[in-house]
């Protein structure tokens, strides 16, 4: 930890942190991270391509899935550059402005993904609760408004963060806890009063991840209530099966965040490498797993993917 005696505002340099004790092996650590990055971009890119080009996938569920894939690509673009910078090139210095910009985009795309997961939960609720009115409730216009609202909320909730950080004093050199910049990490390194920053960060989380997760739980409670009211066990199973993909994606998104939060509050300093691994996984896992889950569980996406490759084969021959 560097001294606050030479603190500055807006001109600090931040040092990225890799895996403690494995500094000599960062080159090898970068190989699986590179592979995860490549497969995440490829998987989400394929999902976007299929949904944009296949008329059979122009349904609300798949349009929301395309939004999820786009937010995953944004999250990859926000986090992977500094990971590669550190693990592959060995560079660990990051200027204040670049760090603040990365912080904004990481949190913004995280909030977008959380909002899209809530929209997908609402989609499943309407599909099960009001199947006859599904097409009239979730119109293209309604989905566009939902997407715009999610994006605007993410920007408005995250815009005060970087602005308020500029008024804080930091040591000329500060060591981050991760290989990317997060709001809570930067606030913890400041040498001046951070009460306003902490309050803004708390409000931001409550009105994004906190609100979304609560409404997702409420949606599934109402879905379960509706399903239990169906007389046929076969129809009950069929209705619940339409929610499996979304439920898996929700768990993939929220469980690593919960695990990291618990680890930070229990014994973060006793297992620093584990804390860093969990911190990286909660950004690495969702982008690579979401396309896999939907490719496995969605018959329409598998059919569209197969049809696309068959057309490519025919074109080649």
Automatic annotation (TrEMBL):
PROSITE patterns given in the database record: G_PROTEIN_RECEP_F1_1 (PS00237), G_PROTEIN_RECEP_F1_2 (PS50262)
GO BP terms: cellular response to lipid
Keywords, sorted A to Z: Cell membrane, G-protein coupled receptor, Membrane, Olfaction, Receptor, Sensory transduction, Transducer, Transmembrane, Transmembrane helix
The G-protein coupled receptors family 1 profile domain, residue ranges: 43-294
Sequence intervals crossing the membrane: 27-51, 63-88, 100-122, 134-156, 199-224, 236-255, 275-296
One annotated Gene Ontology cellular component of this protein: plasma membrane
Gene Ontology molecular function: any one: olfactory receptor activity
Localisation per UniProt entry: Cell membrane; Membrane
Superkingdom of source: Eukaryota
Membrane-protein topology: Multi-pass membrane protein
Family: Belongs to the G-protein coupled receptor 1 family.
Annotated function: Putative odorant or sperm cell receptor.
Name of the featured protein: Olfactory receptor
């Amino acid at each position: 930890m560097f001294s606050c005696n030479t603190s500055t505002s807006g001109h600090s340099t931040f040092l990225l942190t890799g895996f403690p004790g494995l500094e000599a092996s960062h080159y090898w650590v970068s190989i699986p991270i590179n592979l995860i990055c490549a497969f995440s971009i490829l998987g989400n890119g394929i999902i976007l391509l299929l949904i944009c080009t296949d008329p059979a996938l122009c349904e609300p569920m798949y349009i929301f899935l395309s939004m999820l894939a786009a937010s995953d690509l944004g999250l990859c673009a926000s986090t992977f550059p500094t990971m590669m910078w550190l693990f592959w090139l060995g560079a660990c210095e990051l200027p204040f402005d670049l760090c603040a910009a990365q912080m904004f985009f990481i949190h913004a795309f995280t909030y977008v993904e959380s909002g899209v997961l809530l929209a997908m939960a609402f989609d499943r609720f309407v599909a099960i609760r009001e199947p006859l009115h599904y097409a009239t409730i979730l119109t293209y216009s309604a989905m566009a408004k939902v997407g715009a609202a999610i994006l605007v909320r993410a920007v408005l909730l995250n815009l005060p963060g970087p602005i308020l950080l500029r008024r804080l004093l930091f040591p000329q050199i500060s060591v981050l806890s991760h290989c990317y910049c997060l709001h809570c990490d930067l606030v913890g390194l400041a040498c001046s009063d951070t009460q306003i920053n902490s309050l803004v960060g708390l409000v931001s989380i409550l009105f994004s991840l906190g609100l979304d997760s609560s409404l997702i739980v409420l949606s599934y409670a109402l879905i379960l209530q509706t399903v239990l009211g169906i007389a046929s066990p076969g129809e009950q199973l069929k209705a619940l099966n339409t929610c499996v993909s979304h439920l898996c994606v929700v768990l993939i998104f929220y469980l690593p965040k919960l695990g990291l939060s618990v680890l930070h509050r229990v014994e973060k300093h006793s297992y620093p490498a584990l804390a860093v691994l969990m911190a990286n996984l909660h950004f690495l896992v969702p982008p690579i797993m979401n396309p896999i889950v939907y490719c496995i569980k969605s018959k329409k996406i598998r059919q569209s993917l197969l049809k696309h490759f068959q057309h490519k084969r025919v074109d080649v021959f």
